[in-house]
Design brief:
There is one protein chain. This protein is an alpha+beta fold. The chain folds into 5 domains: 73 residues, Orthogonal Bundle (Helix Hairpins); 246 residues, DNA ligase/mRNA capping enzyme (D-amino Acid Aminotransferase, Chain A, domain 1); 76 residues, Nucleic acid-binding proteins (OB fold (Dihydrolipoamide Acetyltransferase, E2P), Beta Barrel); 174 residues, DNA polymerase, domain 1, CATH 1.10.150.20; 69 residues, BRCT domain (Rossmann fold), CATH 3.40.50.10190. Strands 14, 15, 16, 17, 18, 19 and 20 form a 7-stranded antiparallel beta sheet that branches. The termini are far apart. The structure holds 2-(butylsulfanyl)adenosine. 2-(butylsulfanyl)adenosine binds next to strand 3, strand 8 and strand 13.
């Protein structure tokens, strides 16, 4: 197989059981798996197995420092932080490419005409052969291998002098640290370091979380290119490694010349194939193209795929394939005459903010959206861009009238990247979320520790009605057989229903009128609706779709309160008395039942004939430990912690994991540690198991 040949090692001279032999074998095996995983995208062993081999190699190298080498896979992450980067003079300058800004087909036509003219070709001469490549949107890198070992990675800089970023580049798993035995003594590979879009989104998501948790000096990144460039320029390679960068090879720099034993390449394509055979990633889209028509076809085909690629490209590159012709054509001012970059419409543009609206999602989540002066970006006209949430909108400080950079890349929804503050002309106020849902007027809540604001009018809100209806009619809730996604969609779209009770007001007539609805199905649905009216209190409660209130909570509520009215009128404190209901759920329940619209919908449902059995509330009998909060620590003599917890909860008490001023008792067993100290410091009562058992037996206070 090509891949195993690629990294095949000469037979280890040392005994394979000896340290040098084992180290060699481990390095070869790890390189092989890394190549399969990172370049070929065909993982061949589980991650855990890779980690095991990696740790074995690390341990062996630690025990035998004299056997450590720079090309070992362990060296991808071991570098020490630098004070600054050293300068590197490129042996052969790093050129740039002339850019064809005409994004239409004529861009390719112009280039081909120029090439033909330079080469003195007549119209009757055959088409010029080109290699068409992607133009990756990252940063150029030169990788220098001496005797097959990666010795230096340098940025482009001004083309003459770049920076030595070797440590950071070693962390890129797609870049071989060592070349196979047939590679020349001196070999510079040139290509692009970039960040995949999914890695970019994940990085920004991590950044947003850090910021939400109050981390200082953190920010989100504008685009994958900036995030990649920032990663390459980290002084500490550990940070560079976190960026999870990637690489594509597209050319070469200095190479041992053929008369000194180096390879003789005839064409650019041959050169790329060789790089590929040595383990470098070369984009699969690379293709031969003959004359302008095939260049145009390539530009168009890639333009169609652009959104689906996992990374950003800003164009394609055409290169004359024959190296002899390349030499004949030469350069003008640092740009080869034999290559051109043919662009696509930009994925970032400037525009102005006409307002900030609020979108309410199917689940009630509120998203601030910037309304924009229409702008053509990433191939479509964009008029809206998400600001994600309140924190994000404030951090970017987007305001009415601002000039902003909008980005639309791939099928990712358009986003406001940043504001050009020096262009701010209006004195508009800072953004804040409305207190009421713009769709239904219910209270908007943001839970502790969450970034999102939500509408609490789940039963009434138009934005959430499909979701609410589907939730209500599912089997685990009141169950209306035969009422699925499509039918709900149809009923809502045709305005036959807008809230839940409307469902029960639909007669056979209205249903039978629907497209694709046979009389028989309409009859069945009417029957199913009738049947669903006889339900249980837990099913009904669960069906209301109250945030954080799952089936377990619904059952607990029904058992504890017995009657719906008692639940609808309970306070947060009273909800907290229910076993397994904590502060977040209690608050969510209270908020939900406080919304007049939600209450009205519930009343209407009852009026439509929904019924269930009610019972006496279990909570009327006050329990021994009602309202008391316990923390358990250390080992108790007889009870396990789980047993103790269960018995406390059964007696109406709560068990919490940490001691605070609100703790009533700390139950301490043997070897109690910091919790005991904290309880003593706060003056919380400390009791042992015997005292707990006494409390459990005591009559309610
Ligand atoms: S070739 C001799 N090929 O675009 C020309 N460059 O200004 C040397 N780039 O700095 C570059 N994709 O960072 C070449 N397939 C590709 C490329 C590519 C992206 C970048 C590169 C260079 C810039 C051109």
């Amino acid at each position: 197989m090509a891949t195993s040949d690629l990294f095949a090692q000469p037979e280890p001279q040392a005994d394979p059981a000896s340290a040098p032999g084992r180290i060699k074998a481990l390095r070869a095996e790890l390189d092989l798996h890394a190549h399969r995983y990172y370049v070929l995208d065909e993982p061949s062993i589980p991650d855990a197995e890779y980690d095991r081999l990696f740790r074995e190699l690390q341990a062996l190298e630690a025990a035998h420092p004299e056997l450590q080498t720079a090309d070992s896979p362990t060296q991808r992450v071991g570098g020490k932080p630098l004070g600054q980067f050293a300068q590197v003079r490129h042996r052969l300058p790093m050129l740039s490419i002339r850019t064809e800004t005409d994004t239409e087909a004529s861009g390719a036509q112009n280039f081909d005409s120029r090439v033909r003219k330079e080469l003195g070709l007549a119209e009757s001469d055959p088409a010029v052969e080109y290699v068409a490549e992607l133009k990756f949107d990252g940063l150029a890198m030169s990788l220098r291998y001496e005797n097959g070992i990666l010795v230096q990675a340098a940025t482009r800089g001004d083309g003459e002098i770049g920076e030595d970023v070797t440590q950071n580049i070693r962390t890129i798993r797609q870049i071989p640290l060592r070349l196979p035995a047939d590679a020349p003594a001196i070999m510079e590979v040139r290509g692009e370091v970039y960040m995949r879009r999914d890695e970019f989104e994940a990085l920004n998501e991590r950044q947003r979380e850090k910021i939400a948790q109050g981390a200082k000096g953190e920010r989100t990144f504008v685009n994958p290119r900036n995030a990649a460039a920032g990663g390459v320029r980290q002084l500490d390679p550990a940070y560079a490694a976190e960026r999870r960068l990637s690489f594509f090879a597209y050319g070469v720099g200095e190479i041992t010349p053929p008369d000194q034993g180096g390879p003789a390449f005839d064409s650019h394509l041959q050169l790329l194939m060789t790089l590929k055979s040595w383990g470098f990633p070369v984009a699969a889209q690379t293709a031969l193209a003959h004359g302008a028509p095939e260049l145009i076809a390539f530009h168009q085909a890639i333009g169609q795929q652009r959104d689906k690629l996992p990374y950003d490209i800003d164009g394609v590159v055409y290169k004359v394939n024959s190296l002899a012709l390349q030499r004949r054509m030469g350069f003008i001012s640092r740009e080869p005459r034999w290559a051109v970059a043919h662009k696509y419409p930009a994925q970032e543009q400037l525009t102005t903010v006409l307002g900030i609206g609020i979108q309410v999602g199917r689940t009630g989540k509120l998203t601030p959206v910037a309304k924009l002066a229409p702008v053509f970006v990433g191939g479509v006209t964009v008029t809206n861009a998400t600001l994600h949430n309140e924190d994000e909108a404030r951090r970017k400080d987007v305001r009415l009238g601002d000039t902003v950079i909008v980005r639309r890349a791939g099928d990712v929804i358009p986003e406001v990247v940043s504001v050009l503050l020096d262009k701010r002309v209006m004195d508009a106020p800072q953004f804040s979320m409305p207190g009421q849902c713009p769709v239904c007027g219910s209270a908007v809540v943001r839970e502790e520790g969450e970034v999102d604001h939500r509408c609490s009018g789940g039963l009434f809100c138009r934005a959430q009605r499909k979701q609410a209806i589907l939730h209500f009619v599912q089997r685990r809730a009141v169950e209306v057989e035969g009422l699925g996604d499509k039918l709900v969609e149809q009923l809502v779209e045709e305005k036959l229903i807008s809230t839940l009770p409307d469902l029960y007001r639909l007669g056979f007539g209205a249903l039978a009128q629907l497209d694709r609805m046979a009389d028989k199905s309409a009859q069945n649905l009417v029957k199913a609706l009738e049947k669903s009216k006889h339900t249980t209190l837990p099913k009904f409660l669960f069906g209301l779709g109250i945030r954080h209130a799952g089936e377990g909570t619904a059952k607990g509520l029904a058992r504890h309160f017995g009657k719906l009215d008692a639940i609808m009128n309970a306070t947060e404190e009273e909800f907290l008395q229910v076993p397994d209901i904590g502060p977040i759920v209690a608050k969510s329940l209270f908020t939900f039942f406080s919304q007049p619209h939600n209450r009205e919908v519930i009343e209407q449902l009852r009026a439509c004939g929904l019924t269930w059995e009610e019972s006496e509330p279990a909570a009327i009998v006050a329990k021994a430990l009602s309202g008391k909060t316990f923390v358990i620590t250390g080992t108790l003599p007889a009870l396990s912690r789980e047993d103790a917890k269960e018995r406390i909860e059964a007696a109406g008490g709560k068990v919490s994991g940490s001691v605070s001023k609100k703790t009533d008792y700390l139950v301490a067993g043997a070897e109690a540690g910091s919790k005991l100290e904290k309880a003593q410091a706060l003056g919380v009562a400390v009791i042992d198991e015997a005292a707990l058992l006494a409390l459990l037996d005591a009559p309610p206070a």
